[in-house]
Design goal:
secreted; 1 helix; Lipocalin; 7 strands; about 140 residues; 7-stranded antiparallel β-sheet; disordered N terminus; mainly beta
Length: about 140
């Protein structure tokens, strides 16, 4: 009986990571980052697009920070279920737009994490000032 329980535990340990690895990332819901910003994403439609809102905790402005709308698209999930995505945020309190691109990862415990990079473009008064408009 002792050897059977040992084999059963070994089998469960070997099957555990496979079952978790089959879990797919789900972008829908509330996401928070380490700086205190948060965003809420709607469910994906049939085309893989989504919408939502972004509330940043950091901004280079003295204006009141407002919740801002976002629009995005997700790559159709692969068999591994860790898709890439992109979205833009139209800031309601500044003359700028930010584009984010990233990938959703699921770890062995089922925790979902978004890894992203962003590019912000702010309005400048002339083409001559375009060099300083992107961060």
């Amino acid at each position: 009986m002792g050897s059977l329980s040992c084999c059963l535990l070994l089998a469960l340990a070997l099957l555990g990571p496979r079952a978790t690895a089959a879990r797919k990332c789900n972008l829908q819901g509330l996401w928070k980052n380490e700086l205190g910003s948060n965003m809420t994403l709607s469910a994906l439609d049939a085309a893989g697009t989504f919408s939502g809102s972004y509330h940043t905790a950091v901004a280079a402005t003295n204006k009141q920070i407002l919740v801002s709308p976002l629009q995005g698209a997700q790559q159709h999930p692969s068999a591994k279920g860790q898709p890439t995505f992109g979205f833009t945020v139209q800031w309601q309190f500044a003359d700028s737009t930010t584009a984010f691109v990233g990938q959703c990862f699921v770890d062995r415990r089922g925790k979902e994490t978004l890894e992203t990079m962003w590019l912000l473009r702010e309005e400048v008064p002339s083409h001559r000032d375009a060099w300083k408009a992107t961060r």
